[in-house]
Structure formats: structure tokens, C-alpha cells
Specification:
Strands 7-6-5-8-11 form a five-stranded mixed β-sheet. A five-stranded mixed β-sheet has the order 14-13-12-15-16, with helices on both faces. The protein has a two-stranded antiparallel sheet with strand order 1-2. Helix content is 40%, strand content 17%. The protein has 14 helices and 16 strands. Helix 5 crosses helix 6. By secondary structure, the chain is an alpha/beta fold. The chain has a domain of 161 residues: Nucleotidyltransferase, domain 5. The chain binds zinc ion. The site of zinc ion has 5 residues, from loops.
Length: 446
């Protein structure tokens, strides 16, 4: 497939080794029984753009080190461009000959564009370079319990297309991977032509996504195994994390958390999750299970949970919690937007439901604030109710359980992206692996 050059003329992209693998996976049968086919075999890819830690031989280490430096310079250009090569050297701390050589490669790859040279008083004509945000695309997917949402973005985070479909039942863990591959292809099919090469796919999944070795625990998806399975089928790197951790990463990249060092994001979906950013890095815990706040015991006591315990916080403070409270009030089968409508009409049952919801969510917020002392708590997720209903009430409820100095020093606000916050965060995970290179320990490859 031809891609758009900056000057508008089509050309064949040099980085397209993944198209063969995509062609191979085009025969997969999805969980819904629909074969993926057609133009997807021609989707251009650029898998080398995503930086992954590699175990290289001593001889390969200097090549890997150079590659990581190139991505660090790319990030300097993204954050501060247009910049001359001399300015890039100054900001990055690397020497000018090395910077010039790496920037030349970036220009050659067309991920960086050269502006017209600017005359200076001393007669030198430095050529500023800037990021070509149309050079590649990244795909973010939220595999939710009830709905799957995918967004395709360019390198500046602009959404190029979006797809939302109901999530089917999965008879086996591998059928989940089949479904993700098929869904990714359906999103890409909707992309306006011509499409820039796809660099990678991020997938946020609710529940426990483990970073350790696979064990007998059937409820855990093991990240490495699942990522390799998806990467192989998609032909580009796939990054899999818990949905709330993806949400936190998205908030860090281009959401409400962009200006903060340390913050918490509550993810009110079918369940309740927590993403936590400490010093601008998502905290995942020893096994990747950090943030499972929905299964702390602050909910209605005695109510059994699918996790095997009772009294879990998400039996009240979540989308499913709201619906359970609605059933208790005799409102069987009602949808949350309908409950919000009843609330605004002054319905006493809806008032009781949202009051109980904010009461328990407030305790969860107070717990998070006391444990981690974040600068801000962001309340996000598909079923974060219309903020006008509960936000002031939530602040009051959480303040009841917080020390006064923490109430004064902790900001709290809603995230307006609602159901798109997780898929955007999943796409941000790929951007993070293109630009930040912060996930790679440079010392390990030296
Ligand atoms: Zn539970």
C-alpha cells in the first residue's frame, strides 16, 4: 500500500516487513466466526519503530545503545521541535557529531522533517528539524467486559478512526487473542486511505495481567506470553497491560495527568480499578497486579464477589455496583444513563443509589490518598457517572475520611474521556515505547 509523503506524493514505505505476517494472520477466524480478509493484507507496518529491551550479544550492544539514543533524540524533537542539530545536542547532552549522524538517520526515515534553513547573524544556516507526526500510526484497544473499543492514532495522539463493538464470550484464553487480532484488523479497515505504517498495538484488559511466570492461576493473563502471541499474529509489537494501568499511562501522555508527577486514576468500569503514576512512571507492583482496589473490603458486607471474597469495594463503587444497588431498589434491568435521568428528575431511589456509590468511592479515594499522597486523584472510566451528579458529594465523602492537610493539598477532578480513556491509554503505551525509551534501562545494554 502506498503511504502519504509529507509533500503529498505517494511512495512505497521502506519499513514493511510486517505485511507478510499480517497477510498470514488474515486467514484467522474470529470469536464471532468472521474471517479477517481483504485489504488488510496490504496494511503497511513499521515494527522497528517500537523500542523493546533486547538481550543482545556484546557485539550487538553498541548497536542497541545507538538505537535507543536515536529514540531519545526523537523524543527531544517531539517535545521541543523545531530544533537545530546543535540545540538537540545541547538538550540531550550528547555530542554534536553523534547527534548529527543520528538525526540524519531520522530524516532519512522520514520520521523527522527538515524545515527551511534560517539565516543567522553569523551567517551559519542551521536546519531546524521537527517530528513528522503523520509518519506512523499506533492502535489502542480496550478489551472491556461488555464492549471492545479501538482507536487508531497518529504520532501526536490525534484519533484517525474509532470502532466499538460488544465483547463476546471467550471459550478459551487463546480465543481472546484471536478476537483481538480480528478486532484490530476491523479498526484498521476503517482507517481513511492512505494509511501511514502501523508501529504497534496496545491492549488494555481488565483483571490481573501478570508479569511473572505462568502458573496454575487460570484467572491471570501472563503478559509476556500474551504479548508474543499477539505480536506474532499482528506482525507488529503488541503491548498488554491491565486497563487501569493503560488509563494511567494515557493520562500521563495526553490526559488530565499530563502536568503532574504523582497521581492516581480511578477507573470506574464494570468493576473498579486504580492506575498509579509515581514520578511520571506507572507503578505496577511486584507481579503487575497493583491497583486492584475493587477487591479491597469497603463494599456492602457479605455480598459474594467473583474473586472468591465478600464485601468487595466494587460491589458498590463500580458500574456493576450501581446496577446491583438499582436491583435492590427494584430497578431491575435499568441502564446507568437512565438512572442518571431519574436522578435529575428527583427520583428518591436514584438519589439513594448515587449517595451510597459516592460514600464507598469516597472511602476508596481517602484510602488511596493516605497510602500514596498523590498530587491529584482523577476519576475516570466508562461508568464514572455524569460528574455533576456526584462530584461535589464525592469530595465531601472522601474529606470525611481524610486528614485536613491532605484534603487541602490533594486535587480531585473528573476525566472527560470516559469510555475512550482506556483505548487512548493503550495507544499511548505504544507511543511511550517509541518516544520515551524510559522503559529501557540503558545501563543494561551498555
Ligand atoms: Zn472481589
Amino acid at each position: 500500500m502506498d503511504i502519504q509523503r509529507p509533500d503529498g506524493a505517494p511512495r512505497r514505505h521502506p519499513h514493511n516487513p510486517g505485511s507478510q505476517q499480517l497477510h498470514g494472520s488474515a486467514s484467522l477466524i474470529s470469536a464471532t466466526g468472521t474471517p479477517a480478509n481483504g485489504p488488510l493484507a496490504d496494511i503497511p507496518t513499521w515494527p522497528e519503530l517500537v523500542v523493546s529491551p533486547k538481550n543482545t550479544s556484546p557485539a550487538g550492544r553498541s548497536i542497541e545503545k545507538r538505537r535507543i539514543r536515536k529514540h531519545q533524540l526523537l523524543n527531544v524533537i517531539r517535545e521541543h521541535g523545531p530544533l537545530s542539530r546543535a540545540d538537540i545536542a545541547k538538550i540531550s547532552g550528547y555530542n554534536l557529531p553523534s547527534v548529527s549522524s543520528l538525526v540524519d538517520e531520522l530524516v532519512n526515515d522520514q520520521i523527522v522533517l527538515e524545515e527551511e534553513a534560517r539565516p543567522t547573524s553569523r551567517g551559519r544556516r542551521p536546519i531546524p528539524v521537527l517530528l513528522n507526526h503523520k509518519a506512523a500510526t499506533v492502535l489502542g484497544i480496550d478489551l472491556g467486559t461488555s464492549a471492545t473499543i479501538g482507536v487508531l492514532m497518529n504520532l501526536s495522539g490525534e484519533v484517525l478512526c474509532r470502532l466499538e463493538t460488544p465483547t463476546p464470550e471467550f471459550p478459551t484464553p487463546d480465543s481472546k487473542a484471536d478476537y483481538i487480532v480480528d478486532f484490530a484488523m476491523r479498526v484498521l479497515q476503517r482507517c481513511p486511505e492512505p494509511m501511514a505504517p502501523l508501529a504497534g498495538v496496545g491492549v488494555g484488559i481488565s483483571g490481573l495481567i501478570g508479569t511473572g511466570r505462568p502458573s496454575h492461576q487460570n484467572s491471570v493473563i501472563f503478559e509476556d506470553r500474551f504479548q508474543s502471541l499477539l505480536s506474532e499474529r499482528l506482525g507488529v509489537p503488541a503491548l498488554v497491560k491491565n486497563d487501569s494501568q493503560m488509563l494511567a499511562l494515557g493520562s500521563l501522555w495526553f490526559g488530565s495527568g499530563a502536568g503532574y508527577e504523582t497521581f492516581a486514576v480511578l477507573n470506574i468500569a464494570e468493576g473498579l480499578g486504580l492506575g498509579f503514576v509515581i514520578n511520571r512512571r506507572v507503578y505496577r507492583g511486584a507481579m503487575g497486579f497493583a491497583g486492584d482496589i475493587g477487591h479491597t473490603p469497603m463494599g456492602d458486607p457479605g455480598i459474594p464477589c467473583y474473586c472468591g471474597n465478600t464485601g468487595c469495594t466494587e460491589n458498590v463503587a463500580s458500574g456493576n455496583g450501581i446496577l446491583r444497588l438499582a436491583r435492590q431498589e427494584g430497578l431491575e434491568g435499568i441502564a446507568i444513563p437512565e438512572l442518571e435521568r431519574l436522578y435529575y428528575q428527583g427520583d428518591e431511589r436514584a438519589r439513594r443509589i448515587f449517595h451510597r456509590f459516592t460514600e464507598v468511592l469516597g472511602r476508596a479515594v481517602a484510602t488511596v490518598v493516605h497510602l500514596y499522597n498523590p498530587e491529584v486523584v482523577i476519576v475516570a472510566g466508562r461508568w464514572a457517572p455524569e460528574s455533576a451528579i456526584y462530584f461535589d458529594q464525592l469530595k465531601q465523602e472522601s474529606a470525611l475520611h481524610m486528614r485536613p492537610s491532605l484534603v487541602e493539598s490533594t486535587a480531585m477532578f473528573p476525566c472527560k474521556l470516559r469510555e475512550d480513556a482506556v483505548p487512548r491509554g493503550s495507544a499511548a503505551s505504544v507511543l511511550h515505547h517509541i518516544f520515551s525509551a524510559a522503559h529501557v534501562d540503558l545501563e543494561e545494554v551498555l
